[in-house]
Amino acid sequence: MSELLAFNTIGAKLTTIICAIIACGFSVIIYFYASQQEKNHLLQNERAINQVLGSVSEGLQTVMITGSASVAELFAKRLLGVKDVEDFRILRTNGLEAFLDNETIMTVNALRKDTDFTPRETESHNRIFAEEDPNFRQVLLTRQFTYFYGKQMVDGKETEHLTFLLPIKNVKKCYRCHGKQREVLGVLKFTSSLEGVRNSVRETWIRAGVFLLLALIATLVVTALVLKRYIVRPIEAVSNAMGKVSKGDLTQQVPIFGRDELSMMATSFNHMTQELRSIYDGFNSERNKLSTIIMGTDEGIVVTNDQGVIVLLNPSVEKLLSKHAERIISDGFLHLLDAPQRMEKLLESNEASLGGPEIFLYQARFLAVYATTIRRANGQLLGRTAVIRDVTQEKRLEQKLRELSSTDPLTNLANRRALDETLATEVALALEQGRALSVLMFDVDHFKKFNDNYGHDQGDRVLRAFSDVTRECVRDVLDTVCRYGGEEFVVIARETPQEGGLILAERIRAAIEAMEVDGLNVTTSIGVAGIRETGAKTPAEMIEKADAALYKAKNAGRNKVMPAKVVAK
Question: In the chain, what percentage of residues exceed pLDDT 90?
């Protein structure tokens, strides 16, 4: 039963729909039934009041004929005490209430030519209807009763009522007192409260509502049980089996409950799973082979047909290219690495047997791509294939080895090998293009005492701090700091004449002098040689002249900057 309460099941939907239809049908029937009952109550009430008023009218006429007008007035007042009677009045044809003034008495006495009826001592006038009131006019013109429904405030509460207007006809027995001129002598106004009728109608609606609720509950329970037994359970069996089949379990079979359409569906499903299992078993071994070769490799494999449409790609392609298979297929073979022109050239070179894999830098990774065109023996195009391998680690290792071969491990500065290569290039450019170039050579003053007095670890810390301060003093692009060997360092200052090199050297010297390493003061002596000023022609000459200037600084007392000897132009 609980699964029928979840609206996402077919049983719940069918139950809801059926109950909604039944509820609509019951509601319509009950609505018409209750409405008809309401009409019947009102009609019976109207008939009862009409009969009462007929009797009252005849009684009043009998009383009036006997000449007992006061009795008629008392009779009208007594009717007001009857249950559900809100108002009973005798009205003249002008809409005024009768028995309040002497107009009728005077008229009757004049016609009778006597004074049988004594005039009232006090008179009053109470207009109940305007003379042009449509309901009042209708009674006077048709001499037939009429009624209408309305609402009025009683004790501060709005109540619904029914008002009857009944004509008092002028008959032969009335001619003596009222003459023959008027066909209608007056109008009886009778107003009855509909509270009792409405209570009966309300009870009818309540009974109908309770019946509807009980019928709906019973229908829901019966419908749910029937649906579960004959519809929901068979459909659930097939649905659950289909869910397991979709996950690869082709052994599923569903029970057959009868010979109806659902049973036929279950039978067809069982036959289908048997056929699928047979076909699957036939292809399973081949699929495993292909999966092992293609799907299991770390290399990406892409194959197209003769129209250039990608028909095969393994998961490694998606991983290597960071693209979904749908996008790879949509973009096409040439856009695998978003470089269609390079891919075309790679295909052409490999088809001509002129090349091999090409390295692509793609999304911060290095990919080795081998692409070729597949043709039949007669040259007919079959398709294209690409094999993609991630060689990022190999490239990073190569880069690391290159860095290790050109970087001093202690100071992370360029080593002697990098110095020789860089200086050779810069000297050649300076001589060829007439550029300024300076070399600064310097070392740590009294470095031996750091090793002898404090140990080699302290000496290494001094060299690292020395290197860091020097690196902060030079220019990022134009200057290169190198460790020449031991405690000796070299700065290659591009686009810098010897005078500028002296300024740079003094900045380095002052920064070194200002630093402390574990509470120890460090100083440096620097020699500066400019290629123009010294007339050097080779890297070795530049180093030699800067080294000579360094020794001059040492001999001058250390912690100094000395220029190389300037050659006359």
Answer: 24
CA angle 22, 28, 34 (to 5 degrees): 130
Q: Which amino acid would we find at residue 166?
A: L
- Contact by Cβ (8 Å): 529, 536: yes
Q: Is 456 exposed, middle or buried (0-12, 13-18, 19+ CB in 10 A)?
A: exposed
HSE value, Cβ hemisphere, 13 Å, CA-based, for 178: 20
CB atoms within 10 A of CB 80: 12
Query: Whose CA is closest to 486, among 443, 456, 518, 424?
Result: 443
472-512 residue pLDDT tens: 999 988 899 999 988 999 999 999 999 999 999 999 999 99
pLDDT at 4: 47
Q: Which domains does the chain have, with CATH numbers?
A: 13-200 (3.30.450.20), 296-395 (3.30.450.20), 407-563 (3.30.70.270)
How distant is the alpha carbon of residue 380 from its chain centre? Answer: 52
Give the CA count within 13 Å in the CB-facing half-sphere of 123: 12
3-class SS of residue 49: helix
Detail the DSSP E strand segments found in 363-466: 365-375, 381-390, 437-444
Helix (H), strand (E), coil (C) string for 193-223? ECHHHHHHHHHHHHHHHHHHHHHHHHHHHHH
Q: Tell me whether strands 310-313 and 300-304 are parallel, antiparallel or unpaired.
A: antiparallel
pLDDT surpassing 80 at residue 369: yes
